[in-house]
Amino acid sequence: MPHRLRTLLSATLALAALSGAGACQDGAGPSGGTPSLKILFIGNSLTYYNDLPGTLAAIARTAGDTLAVESVTGPGYALLDHLQGMSDAVAAVKRGGWDVVVLQQGPSTLAVNRDSLVLWTGMFDSIIRPTGARTALYMVWPAGASAQGIDAVRQSYQLAAQSVGGLFLPAGMALQLALQRDATLPLLGSDDFHPSPLGTYLVAITIYERLTGKDARDLPDRAAANGATLDVPASIVQLLQEAAHQANLQY
């Protein structure tokens, strides 16, 4: 069975996630306010590690936004796996009500994988567009966030987004920019591929800025992921916010 995450965060729980007052719970009820955006994530462990959708909603709450987020993910899944019925992603899209559907798979650095990403993005977009939502591509990164592979990942995801007139979410580029400024930042986990909680925070603020149009540098100078406040100094948080902002400016 695919790992599924279904999250609708209340205003109270979202604020608690960043303040350290409590943990966000999957499936929490709506806050009663009207969400500014309804976002569906479709991907794999690079989305469900550290609860990226819930982290995004919690960060948005600190800036006065209420985001409704939901995701359908599976370990190691490519977009084709979702399209072929290994999850209920297609049914989730067709249910409608989304403003943005965010797609994610592996790095897709090879030409054949790039072609597949573009093809499968187009297949998803043909389902997404009739619902009134917009397709977005969450750019990931190669193992170790290597400088040699990162540009190939960017080209793959950027091309896929352009092919459907969608949004490009340059999270992988934000990761690289941050590491260029401080190579000691613990943005990846022990496998040197999946994001650490701090890495998930950086991804979330990059996506937040692109989807809402609000400057990541105006967010509070504290970081959190998966319902827990992270023990990092304000100077590091500000460095990550600047990296997110610059990635969005450049791409």
Short summary of the structure?
The chain is an alpha/beta fold. 46% of the residues lie in helices and 13% in strands.
Detailed description of the structure:
The protein starts with a strand and ends with a helix. The strands form 2 sheets. It has a 6-stranded mixed beta sheet, with helices on both faces. It has helices at residues 11-19, 45-48, 52-62, 79-83, 89-95, 111-128, 147-163, 171-181, 197-212, 234-250; strands spanning 4-5, 37-43, 67-73, 100-103, 134-138, 167-169, 224-225, 228-229. The longest helix is centred in the middle third of the chain and has 18 residues, at 111-128. It has one domain: SGNH hydrolase (Rossmann fold), CATH 3.40.50. Helices cover 46% and strands 13% of the residues. Strand 7 and strand 8 (228-229) form a beta hairpin. The chain is built from 10 helices and 8 strands. With 251 residues, it is of the alpha/beta class. Helix 6 (111-128) runs parallel beside helix 7 (147-163), helix 8 crosses helix 9 and helix 9 (197-212) packs across helix 10. The model is unreliable at 1-32 (pLDDT under 50).
Q: Which SSEs are present, and which pair or pack?
A:
Layout (H helix, E strand, L loop, with lengths): L3 E2 L5 H9 L17 E7 L1 H4 L3 H11 L4 E7 L5 H5 L5 H7 L4 E4 L7 H18 L5 E5 L8 H17 L3 E3 L1 H11 L15 H16 L11 E2 L2 E2 L4 H17 L1
Parallel strand pairs: 2-3, 2-4, 4-5, 5-6
Antiparallel strand pairs: 1-3, 7-8
Helix pairs in contact: 1-3, 3-9, 6-7, 8-9, 8-10, 9-10
